[in-house]
Amino acid sequence: MNSNTILKVQGASKRFGGVQALSDVGITIEKGQVVGLIGPNGAGKTTFFNVITGLYVPDTGSFELGGTAYKPAAVHLVAKAGIARTFQNIRLFPEMTAVENVMVGRHVRTHSGLLGAVFRTPAFKAEEKAIEARARELLDYVGIGRHADFRARTLSYGDQRRLEIARALATDPQLIALDEPAAGMNQTEKVVLRELIDRIRKDGRTILLIEHDVKLVMGLCDRVTVLDYGKPIAEGTPAEVQRNPKVIEAYLGAGH
C-alpha cells in the first residue's frame, strides 16, 4: 500500500436479513484528502460509513488504516485505531459543557487509568489539566471557544455541529469521518462549515465526508465515490463523477 494511503477498504459487504445493503464496496483515501461518499437515498452510504467506523460488523472485507489492518468490530476500538466520526443526528452530552464534551473525546488518548482517576494521583491531575487545555484550544479552532463553559444543549444548531467536530479532533484521528455535517444547516452555517472543513484539510487532516448537499461535496472534495443500491458505480474527481452517465442516471432516472 502507498505510504500516503490513510484508509484502504476492499470487498466490504453487509446483509440485513434478506437485504444486501452493501456488495463488494471499496474506497482508498490518501493523506490530506477530502473524499466524498454520495449516492441517492438508500444507496448504502450510511451502512458503509457505519461498517468502516465499527457500528456495524461487516460480513466480508479487508480494512487498513495507515497501513495497518484493523477490524471494525466496535466503535471504541475503531476510535483507538484512529478513526473519529460525527453523526447525522447530533450525539452530544446535552447537560455537559462544550469543553466537557470535547474532554470526553480526548480521554481516548489518556494514560492514567482507573486507579489514577479513583485516587486522583498527581499524574492524573496533570493529565486532566492538559486535556482541558487541549479541549479549549480545539473549541477555539472550530470557532466556538467563547461558548466553552455553556451546556451543549444551549448552543445553536450550527455550533453543536462544530462542537461534534471538535470532539472528533480531540482523539487525534488519522481519519475524520463526517456524517451529513451540513444536514439541517442554513446557508450561512454551511459557508462556515465549508471554511472549517477546508481549514482542517489544509492543516494536514484527512476527511471522509457523507453529504446530501452535492454542491458542497463537489466544491470541497478531492475525490468522490458514488454508491447506488449498495454498489459502487463511479469514482474520480468531482468533474469526472458529474459527467459519468451512471451517476446522472442514478440521480435523475433513465428517462431524464
UniProtKB/TrEMBL annotation:
Gene Ontology MF, one: ATP hydrolysis activity
InterPro entries attached to this UniProt entry: AAA+_ATPase, ABC_AA/LPS_Transport, ABC_transporter-like_ATP-bd, ABC_transporter-like_CS, BCA_ABC_TP_C, P-loop_NTPase
Domain ABC transporter: 7-254
Classification via Gene3D superfamilies: P-loop containing nucleotide triphosphate hydrolases (3.40.50.300)
A GO BP annotation: D-alanine transmembrane transport
A Pfam family annotated for this UniProt entry: BCA_ABC_TP_C
Protein name: ABC transporter ATP-binding protein
Species of origin: Inhella proteolytica
Classification lineage: Bacteria, Pseudomonadati, Pseudomonadota, Betaproteobacteria, Burkholderiales
